[in-house]
Glutaminase
Amino acid sequence: MNKLLTELIEKNKVYGNKGKLASYIPALLKANKEDLGIVIVDLNGEEFSAGKSDKIFTIQSISKVISLMLAIKDNGYQKVLEKVNVEPTGEGFNSIVNLETKDTKRPYNPMINAGAIVTTSLIKGKTEEEKLKKLIDFMKKATNNENIGINEEVYVSEKLTGDRNRALAYYMKSNGILEGNIEEILDLYFRQCSIEGSARDLARLGAVLANDGVIPWSGEILIEKEICRIAKTIMVTCGMYDASGEFAVKIGIPAKSGVGGGILGAVPKRMGIGVYGPALDEKGNSIAGIELLKDLSNELDLSIF
Amino acid sequence: MNKLLTELIEKNKVYGNKGKLASYIPALLKANKEDLGIVIVDLNGEEFSAGKSDKIFTIQSISKVISLMLAIKDNGYQKVLEKVNVEPTGEGFNSIVNLETKDTKRPYNPMINAGAIVTTSLIKGKTEEEKLKKLIDFMKKATNNENIGINEEVYVSEKLTGDRNRALAYYMKSNGILEGNIEEILDLYFRQCSIEGSARDLARLGAVLANDGVIPWSGEILIEKEICRIAKTIMVTCGMYDASGEFAVKIGIPAKSGVGGGILGAVPKRMGIGVYGPALDEKGNSIAGIELLKDLSNELDLSIF
Amino acid sequence: MNKLLTELIEKNKVYGNKGKLASYIPALLKANKEDLGIVIVDLNGEEFSAGKSDKIFTIQSISKVISLMLAIKDNGYQKVLEKVNVEPTGEGFNSIVNLETKDTKRPYNPMINAGAIVTTSLIKGKTEEEKLKKLIDFMKKATNNENIGINEEVYVSEKLTGDRNRALAYYMKSNGILEGNIEEILDLYFRQCSIEGSARDLARLGAVLANDGVIPWSGEILIEKEICRIAKTIMVTCGMYDASGEFAVKIGIPAKSGVGGGILGAVPKRMGIGVYGPALDEKGNSIAGIELLKDLSNELDLSIF
Amino acid sequence: MNKLLTELIEKNKVYGNKGKLASYIPALLKANKEDLGIVIVDLNGEEFSAGKSDKIFTIQSISKVISLMLAIKDNGYQKVLEKVNVEPTGEGFNSIVNLETKDTKRPYNPMINAGAIVTTSLIKGKTEEEKLKKLIDFMKKATNNENIGINEEVYVSEKLTGDRNRALAYYMKSNGILEGNIEEILDLYFRQCSIEGSARDLARLGAVLANDGVIPWSGEILIEKEICRIAKTIMVTCGMYDASGEFAVKIGIPAKSGVGGGILGAVPKRMGIGVYGPALDEKGNSIAGIELLKDLSNELDLSIF
């Protein structure tokens, strides 16, 4: 397996040159476009890796999967569904159009920014610090990594450039979808996007999802099976922005990408996958990472369809 | 003339019962639905009136005409046009859709909220207080009324319920249309909407516009003819929200309405008109006021077409 | 006056080189981009002209003004309004979006294709030929020109390339806005777009509109004053496609353009104007014609605002 | 298994009373709202059934799965993808909006009407009859049922009421997405929608899909594995109209519904499922059928996620 992974890394890392680094935040521009790494964690907890498997980056939108799961854990699925739908949308990740034109003012799904801001707002806690701790603690357990934390530089940048997200949030507040102090909700959202990890951390988290919520290396139940299943389903229908359909056809793995270059994959009952490749395609997904996963899916017959 | 106005008031005030008071702000709900008043000021400064001609209310969106004129005065028409277009739109006054879907991110025109927030932001001044003073001073001169000021209760309410406008503003900031501190810009915008006046004040302002910027009772030039012409044009194409086309067909007078129940009218080279009738139709225009203006336009052949 | 017109033609015909000829129909590509002509007809019937004042071209969308007037004449304004609204729209002339997204399925106004197809369908007559004769006869009287007829080559091309209009028509049929045989309605619509005339013909038609429906050279009433007023109003708010707002601000004349390069102008109580300049700007309006009208409006103070 | 199916039918058939029969075609209104039937075919070809398992109905939109597969077979996936995308959309099945507003004019996916009209147009054949024969022959083989054919009454009705589809087709022709004679393409589309079958037929077709294109009862390869996989993927992301996301979360089976009341299900590597229940929910899916599948998925742990 390690040999296969190494071959695939060598074959695909050249794609990074065709992509672009995310540029809305200075810190993201420091990445190396040819970096490419992958880690696989199977359901026994065994790990396989190649390339930049331990390079640290911010998980960005991948955090939406975590806030979704915590929101369901804290409120139940029905309550969450009242505030955010689970339908895919043809619009981009930061679109505001459908908040206005649709009869129900709910965001389309928890994988677009508007929907993720809602799930973040639904995490329960007395203070923002307490809510953030929940997110971080979840990540620490799911990754078996005590060092999980926030990249302060990225967080500050997110906060400074977050006007589009402010627009989404105030719009939803005016429609009664969002309650409470908007700047506090957004602050938590910007922090969760700034959580740092590596492809290894993502692969471990993916393995927990693939294993129906049970941590492979400890046997501990981290999250309910039903919540895992919902998360994996929404990852397939909505996880790769408006390229989700194409990704499902070509690769067929529940996955979520982030503009930091990470991709979280969870093959039900088989394995977790973590990928890092910071150069993005025009949809905002890791360009080399997607090529790498396409080969991997073909080699190991990973498609769930 | 006074007799005609009195007859038209008596005939049309019953329409108020078919309308609704604006309800997003508690203060607006205190109005009396059957109130109806009209004032006409001709180009000699002579005044005719009937009904609730001196009742005080907040001018709300009518202030958009003033901030448009001051923005052009301070920046020139071309500069303003770079930030806000002058095309009518089929969307509602607080729509955000077109900010996203159109190639140019400019708001459609200065009579919808997004566009008016832009013109307000373009008024020059060292402090917010200085900018507000410009607006108030303009109104004082145009109305020959030293008592023009802000309704503090309404202003505070606007500020509290202004999340939709915050969404519009942050969205435009994220697109580079709006610059500076958003809460400060919105604060000025909320204040200008809370300026108080009567149908008489509006009629006098209308007379200045009808008279190409020259104050009829003093001969003083308050604003350039060209700017007046632009304002009157945009009032026709965009002044009555998404009922502007119907209003132009039926009545044919440059006009601007506000949810406080006021309508400002300016018949080029003939007269200014001020109307007050707080009950609104579903488009947000004074329901009795529009009926009243329809009769008046027919009686006096006021349509410019 | 003729001297002024000649000067303005000379000054502005160079703009034709910056525009593009309409290309969707081969016949339209045969035009000469530097051609520019203007005719003015005053309310005594006196004519002034310069440039290509008698060159023949197809009137295209200018025919929408005629089918609107005939539809109102045959059905009354209220009946027409039930099928087509009179609101300006920010969308382009052949947009289908708003037919779907708005609560009422009526086209926005009679100057966009969807709306004009509706008004054409509302002209009464036993056969298509009879309806066409009504259109042609109206034009003959309004232009004092017995030679008005159809350009068969253009008509055949319109029919061949009319799939977007077919889409609009079938969509409206599925919504109950349009009734009857779609291909027959469209055939009439394509024929009316292929009516030929010159800048002189347009100027005479404009003079009738400016004169409230009375033919200046004969004193005959061709169309009711009220219908003329409606037509002129809608020309201002919607006549120049999605550049109507800018045109109103800069020029301020009720006008309607066609992709054949014609512009029909009607200055209430003053004059009719006909312009021909086949090179178009990106909105589909005669590029040199608009510059010419801008100068003319400034010189003669023609703006109605 | 038969016992389980019988219990689930009894439990869920009451939901039919909460739904509505499709009403745009008279023939569809003759159905019985409480009818509910299910058939399961496993990968050995063994069949289990309960309720109205052999009642005949028109498959309607389920035929979109077949025309998609034949289009790919005849043209290759890349060629099809150039004409129709594979992304889910938040818009309804007969929406025209995105054909206009998106940069690429391709329909969003082959499960909405616009996209299915495209795939139907891509089936190769010298005549319409030859193309129809391909569709019917495919169905005959996939269902082991020589009686598969067209319901002429439904076909005629589809043709008569198909103006919305005509609008979509002409729109796509004007954009170069669709080529050839529109009425002929639509005629074939209306015929394919009028193909008749039973829940048993759908279950057998589903079993072929679940078995990667190999007919379980004969071992014959009917369609390439890769094409089956694409079909199942698109069924998950787009198969249940704009309720696809919710269906995936709650049930997690590749499925496609039709307004005739049928649902085709294909659980990869496990079984085909056919459901019949003509009463529809507001999204156009069989209301009792969905409840039935929810129970079945829970009982047999069928979700692929």
